[in-house]
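Field notebook, page 350. I keep forgetting to write these up properly, so this time I am using the form the group agreed on. The chain and the ligand, pyridoxal-5'-phosphate, are recorded exactly as supplied. Prediction of the bound pose follows.
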Amino acid sequence: MAIDLNKLVRKNIQQLKPYSSARHEFTGKASVFLDANENAYGSPMEDEYNRYPDPLQWQLKFQLARIKGVPAENIFIGNGSDEVIDLAYRIFCDPQKDNVIICPPTYGMYEVSANINDVAIKRVNLTVSYQLDVPAILAAIDVNTKMLFICSPNNPTGNDMKRDDVVELLNTFPGIVIIDEAYINYSKQKTFIQELTIYPNLIVMQTLSKAWGMAALRVGLCYASMDIIDLFNKVKPPYNINEASQQMATEALTNTTLVNGWIKEVVAQKDWVGDELADLSYVEKVYPSDANFILVKVRDAEGLYKFLAENGIVVRNRSREPLCENSLRITIGTPAENKKLVQIFKQYKG
Ligand SMILES: *Cc1c(COP(=O)(O)O)cnc(C)c1O
């Protein structure tokens, strides 16, 4: 879709003069830094964290660029995907005027972030087979519709959205399409980050919180055109990714062999858990999953949830979500954890 970014971006953001940090203003070579009121003596611990971190996280971006095959200039890094979502609202949506489309059942933060930013939500439920209802999405668009969130693989249902549907929406949606690929490493579908040059209205989100095993570091990844990345950089807090997270993530990203091994193991374990649970009389359905969790429909989700909790296992009850009646979302754990899960499921007299 040919879009006019200027029409989509809020006036106050277009006109915003961003904060210019000390590290930003000086670009030459220097050895004495007396420009940022830091403690020049050091830090009271072994590693030194007394200097402000790189506001644009270039080392981490170069590393990502190598792995992902996307130029570093097309990457924005958020303090978790949640910061990326919030910034997108703040860049594109005028409070109390604009609206966005989400497709429930889906990730809760799209709606929470809309509420925080006082932006209206249009809910277009997925179809009964948990796919995008493209005609209904197109029918929901009005002049104030700025963004569409597509989660693929989707949380909590676990399945990929059909690529043809996503492409159709990228071609026809008159605003920003955000594709959330938090679980892409577990899926056989191709990422959309190679399509950034084709779709100027595309933002792809990924994260180091799931397959990469760094949820505590809070590193959310965002890929988009340079024009959109510039907007994110303008609006973000100057030092949104701390130095420890930048360093550890940059280093950890070299360990692809270990992570790829885990992904294979999780997928195999998911198949095993799914098969075991599907055999139980009170389990009505184990939904096919392209992620690292499964959605399981049972006779009495509340009762089973409590039984699991009494036995020390916590899962997510998604029963109150549309199309998820009596359904639990279960993350795939280690082989020992999964064995215990199956064992407790078998003890349940549903
Ligand atoms: C877990 C998850 C994320 C990741 O959020 P972070 O803030 O990066 O930890 C993003 N989107 C979806 C759909 C998720 O399930």
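OBSERVATIONS:
- Residues 12-252 form a domain with the Aspartate Aminotransferase; domain 2 fold (CATH 3.40.640.10).
- Residues 80-82, 107, 151, 155, 180, 182, 207, 209-210, 215, 220 surround pyridoxal-5'-phosphate (CB under 6 Å).
FOLLOW-UP: compare against the apo run.
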